[in-house]
TrEMBL record:
Residues 77-195 form the DUF1758 domain. Pfam families: DUF1758. Residues 1-12 have a biased composition (Basic and acidic residues). Coiled coil: none annotated. The lineage of its organism: Eukaryota, Metazoa, Cnidaria, Anthozoa, Octocorallia. Residues 1-20, 27-49 are annotated as: Disordered. This is DUF1758 domain-containing protein. It comes from the Eukaryota. Residues 33-49 have a biased composition (Low complexity). InterPro entries: DUF1758.
Amino acid sequence: MEINRSHPELPREPNNTSTATVIDNLTSTDNPTTTGYMTTEDSTTTTTTKTRSKVLLQTAVTYAQGENGSNPIPVRLRFDSGSQCSYITNSLKKRLGLVPIRTETLNLNTFGDDHFKKRRCDIVQLSLKGNSDNRKITALCFPNLCAQLTITIDLSLHPHLQDLQLSDLNIAEGRQSDSSIDILIGAVYYFDILTAEMVRGESGPVAVSSDFGWVVTGPTTYTESCSKVSEFICSSTSNVHYQHHPHLR
């Protein structure tokens, strides 16, 4: 005779699950099983501290005008003696209605990359308003010149800067209205616009005289610290029913 020996299937309840993101230290405590259920608790505490110093690049604000007699518009420019050429954004070219005088092919590559890409750029001419006279420059057109410059400083912490006629007030804390760059001035015009006159404090950034006003550059005298503590607590309870089933004999 064949005997069918089987156990009745245990009834199950839906699992209670929970998820916690662990960023730093994880402490998990499992309590001993009690009558009919088990409880687990997971807690995570995360502390992040980030400290970084601020460095101001050489920027100035002036007015640009096309050779076609277009109305002058305010522009923000950055000085870069490491660049052979000067550049303007395609957006500025369009706003001034500039007509290319010729085109040039550039070989573009990123830092540490042996390969380059070719890109054809328009070359235009425009004038920049200086303190004494307008400065005519020739520049290549490019979609974007650099990332937005959002670093500002508290001028009250730098007495040597307070009496100067700063060219770019966007660097002053609470006064930034434009963080984008419209023009990059390369080595060809760099020393024609910037002079050798310089103002230094005991520490912090220095001011360099230019035809557009005083240009502030260099590291600030303080670092910005950000400390954030976040606590995430996740508790989960799983109910497990136990039933005793005698063995069939």
